[in-house]
Amino acid sequence: MLLAPLLLGIINKTKAFYAGRTGQPLLQAYWDIGKLLGKGAVYSRSTTLLFRLSPSLILASMITALFLMPSGGLLSPLAFSGDLILFAYLLGLARFFTVTAALDTGSAFEGMGASREVLFSALAEPALFLSLAALAGLTHTYSLSAVYFGLNIEVWKTAFPALLLLVAALFVVFLAENSRIPVDDPNTHLELTMIHEVMVLDHSGPDFAFIQYAASLKLWLLGSMIVGILVPLRGAGFWLEEILFRLGMGLLAVLVGYVESSRARLFLPRVPKFIGSAAVLAALALLLVLR
Amino acid sequence: MNDPWIQTLLVLLILTDLVMLGSSRVGKCIRVIAAQGVLLAALILALNINSLNGHVLLLAFASLFVKTFLFPWILVRAIRRADVDQAVDPLIGFGPSLLIGALLMPLSLWLGTRLPLPDALASSLIVPVALYTMLIGLFLLVSRKKAITQVLSYLLLENGITIFGVALLVKVPLLVELGTLLDLLGAVFVMGIALFNINQTFEHIDSSKLSFLKE
Amino acid sequence: MFFFLFGLCCLAFGGVGALLVSSRRWSGILGAGGALVGCPIALIPVLEVLFRGEKLAFHHGWSVPYGSFFLKIDPLSAFFLLPILLLTAIAAIYAVGYLEKEEKQGSHWLFFNLLACSMAFVVVARNGILFLVAWEAMAIFSFFLVSFEDEKEEVRKASWIYLVATHLGTAFLLVFFLLLGQAAGSLDFDQIAAMSAHKTLPSLLAGTLFLLAIVGFGTKAGFMPLHVWLPEAHPAAPSHVSAVMSGVMIKTGIYGLLRMIPLLGKPEIWWAWLLIGIGLSSGILGVLFALAQHDLKRLLAYHSVENIGIITLGLGLGFLGVAVGSVPLTVLGFAGGLFHVLNHALFKGLLFFGAGSVLHATGTREMDRLGGLMKAMPWTGATFLIASVAICGLPPLNGFASEFILYVGAFKGVGSFGVLQSLPALAVLLGLALIGGLAMACFTKAFGVVFLGEARTEAAENVHEAGAFMKIAMVALSISCFLAAFLAIPIVKSLIPAIAEISSLPVETVAAQLPLATDPLLGLLLVTGILTLLFCGLWLLRKNLLSGRSVELAATWGCGYQRGSSRMQYSSSSFARPLTELFSPLLRTHDEITPVEGLFPKGARLKTHTPDLFQEIIYRPAFKAILWAIARLRWIQGGNLQLYILYIAATLLVLLIWKL
Question: B69 in a domain, yes or no?
């Protein structure tokens, strides 16, 4: 799970490759987090205790979500019926505190980012739940681990149209939830145009390190859902599965980098349509699964 | 009996319907219709993969030719001649259209279960998809202003009927013949529009202006 | 039963006593004392019923035709009595602080305590007439409480709307009971139940009765097209009254549905569809309208509509389960819905308390005039935050626990039938997800704009924290929010007999399916534990890292623009703008803009207003039409005494002729 920030590195490296630059080192995100952990902190006078509490809470909920998510050859340490709902809501809890912390600073820019974040996530929520319902319906189980182990090559053979639709839907959710292009541009130069990055502008020091790490974990979590579907190899031995899974994650990151280099950001009022299309794809998948 | 490949085709048909609902350019709509022609031909072949005969091949080929090449070609030419504006000009906006499109889906599912049909269809989805395509066609027919988009909506409606027909190809050949007749009617319709309405009287391209007659 | 009646007597006597004594102080002590003594006493038998599963009954002769003074506490009543008595007691504590400077204490306490009594009677009455009397008393007392500040124009208007709406609802209930009584030959609920057990009502009659019940009870509960009184009455009433009305009074509508529908025989599948449809419209439209509001209490009122929607989704799922014969769906749907009744009472009460404290301290409910209150009012702020997290249905608080059960139910429903039968469950799932996301938008807005950032006006700058009584009440409710989450499993277990009664299934069958609900809750507890541990660990780590390093205070990063005034913060309207715009066909927000003009603009204004869709398109035209019709009849009112006598004589004559 320590590999999560590496994804950011791969994405940035791919982008740099397409832009013809050398780009930052692969491990840049680790250096950033390490350096931030070693620094002091500056707080805005407008903020309250909430602002200081929220980074720890955000990271805590992300790590907790990690406990529920199976990956590679590993079962998740914690699995019970219904944990896929809890998983989605843990991400929600983190979002709630990111948004309130942003509002705590009283900055109009951060308010704007917060407002957009809640809009897009409110729209992404139905798409995510439809996908989860389709996965649950496909495997007749209600826990992430059970779903993960229920998806094997046999299932792919008979239900690949539904699964492909699901992967497409989840990929859109993945881009939207992690604030990547075409929904949000993580390295835009103007605060006005950011969504996630502007919300965390005022965090500093270890707090910011927590937030950065939490963001990369979120990338990892939602990514491993997609890769988990795409690499339907179960019971082929721990190491093989693990390696394939890691490889899949790496490829996913490259894909994100490619999307980011080749597409522009969407015109803001069109983003709901983009996310809505994910919901439609997921609904179709569900239709195929149920029929 | 649910062949994943047929499923894929049906899903793609639904997706093209939705794209049709959401697209704001006439050119894109024409391309969607062309794509549906390909899908229909593929569907005809896929459904009868075990009993390929001349009849089936002819039908598939006709569908491909007429819907993918002939109609789009005529329409594109007509647009170019009449210098039609590319904007679709909806009476009901694209967002609400998509929403209605989403609501029509359960409706067509429900309708599909109510229709008394022979059981041994290749996929339980095929009738709902046919109904869905027809419903979308009807909806577009009432919610888009321009004559050219009306033609396109009519073609969509007709595609729906074709899907319905090919589902029953083996069982009720007569129905399919009727469908082919409808195809011909469509062709005549398209030609008529292309030759007279669009080509000559550009002012009348907006079919909501037809209501001038009332006054 | 003795304890229960004795407790209610304490309540009533406290209220009457408060009216009779002249000093403000004493009437407060008597009124609140009555509530504080009466509620816990009445709670004893309630808990006994809830956890031991017995039923307590009380029968007394009554000379009203068809009426009988028949009270019974069964598990279903007990489960509704729990929030009624709990929230009344806590609201009474809050009221002591809230009304400190108020003159009309006596009448307030009288009506407040009597309202609590009448609500309790509604849920224990077992006879149609008695039920209607209690129902009407509840409406009247709450009307007087809403019109408490009757010197204000808007309050008079709001209470008038409430009175009309609630009586329209009662009219439907009257017809409901008349028809039901006629069909069953009795108005005692037990006898009706006995009748419906071996004789099914004709489906037309049952359907009509069901619709009557939906309209009658739905008006009180606030189902979406019938909800118009809520956003008017809740802001007008004193805050603790809003808390009681929104937290428990509207739930009597839900109780009524749960009590009456099983009396109509086996539910048909379209009933479930209708309930789910109502739940969706109330839930989604409720939260959307809430999002567009900038009056804090109006926002909360719309959120009550939303939560009633969630509860109704649960009921719909439950009745769907009964109709198609799926026990898991029945158990999960009813358990989630009923548990949410309790949870909503807790966090909505808390939210209204918080709003009341803000109103008390600043004198305004307008969110765009507030801001930064967290620093001056840490207690109110922290408790409001807890309630916000709970109402958004976020783990680990109680709001999530009940929505969790509903989600599990919806997932079960989607997976286990064919496409068509899955549609309602799928609708529930989608609805819950959308409501969840929008509620989060709404409460980050409400909490963020009111309590965080900088004060936007002077009114928000010089504020004081709420008094001790108010603080106690808020903290008590916050703790109960946590408790309800931790005790979720025993609470859900205590629901078994109630669910069995609603669905007419044997208790053992219901109990056998209960692990479906309790297993996820157990997992939730585990996850909560991990979350807490991790949070504490990270917090300590952070503290360790920061100790000995420089921790500075500075201005917020203004993105290169350092002269912003506090009015430039993102306001509640701007926060919600993208969403309201997306849903503009439904919300129809009006803008009044005075745009910026010239190089040195003098000033610009933007005023937004979101009217209630249904009030605009249904009620206003309808009432206009009625007024028009009445105006046409004005000639009858001649003002001439002889004419009136003629009317009376003519009426009598007609009656005589008709009867002969």
Answer: yes
d(CA A14, CA A27): 13
pLDDT, chain A, mean: 84
State the pairing for strand pair A41-44/C551-554: parallel
Contact B79, B63 (CB under 8 A): no
* Residue from C385, C400, C407, C492 to probe the interface with A (highest A Cβ count within 10 Å): C407
Has residue B79 been placed in a domain?
A: yes
Say which residues have a Cβ less than 8 Å from residue B139's Cβ, sequence separation at least 6.
B21, B97, B100, B101, B104
CB distance C323 to C269 below 8 Å: yes
Instruction: Please state the domain count of chain A.
Output: 1
Q: Which two tokens stand for residue C586?
A: 């439904």
Cα–Cα distance measured from residue A287 to residue C433, given in angstroms and rounded to the nearest whole number = 18
CA angle C1, C4, C8 (to 5 degrees): 145
* Residues listed for chain B: 215
Cβ neighbourhood burial of C387 (10 Å; 0-12, 13-18, 19+): buried
Domain annotation covers residue B88: no
Q: Please give the radius of gyration of chain A, using alpha carbons only, rounded to the nearest integer.
A: 19
C584 touching chain A per CB within 8 A: no
Q: Which of A72-76, A260-264, C324-328, C464-468 has the lowest mean pLDDT?
A: A72-76
Q: Per residue in B109-154, pLDDT tens?
A: 888 777 766 655 656 778 888 889 988 888 887 887 777 777 788 7
Contact C331/C518 with Cβ under 8 angstroms?
no
Cα dihedral B177→B178→B180→B186 (10° resolution):
170
Q: C309 near C281, Cβ under 8 Å?
A: yes
pLDDT tens readout for residues A39-71: 888 888 778 888 889 999 999 999 999 888 887
CB atoms closer than 10 angstroms to residue C603: 7
Number of inter-chain CB pairs under 8 A, A vs C = 266
Total domain count, chain B: 1
Q: Indicate which of B109, B125, B129, B132 best probes the interface with C, i.e. most C CBs within 10 Å of its own CB.
A: B109
Please check whether residue B214 lies inside any domain of the structure: no
B113 reaches C (C-beta below 8 A)? yes
Looking at the complex, report in whole angstroms how far the Cα of residue B157 sits from the nearest Cα belonging to chain C.
Answer: 24
Distance from the B118 Cα atom to the nearest Cα atom in chain A, whole angstroms: 17
Which of C:491-530 have CB within 8 Å of A?
A: 516, 519-520, 522-524, 526-527, 530
Among the partner residues B11, B98, B105, nearest to A165 by beta-carbon distance: B11
Could you list the residue range(s) of the whole structural domain that residue B64 is in?
Answer: 4-83+93-207
Contact A259, A175 (CB under 8 A): yes
Domain range for A142 is 4-290
The answer to whether A95 contacts chain C (CB < 8 Å) is yes
Q: Are the C-beta atoms of residues C385 and A50 closer than 8 Å to each other?
A: yes
Tokens 């006994």 locate to C48
Kindly list the residues of chain A whose beta carbon comes within 8 Å of any beta carbon in chain B: 157-162, 165, 272-273, 276, 280, 283-284, 287-288, 291
* Domain residue spans of chain C: 1-265, 615-659
CB-based contact, B96 to chain C, within 8 Å: yes
Which residues from A are below 8 Å from B109, CB to CB? 287
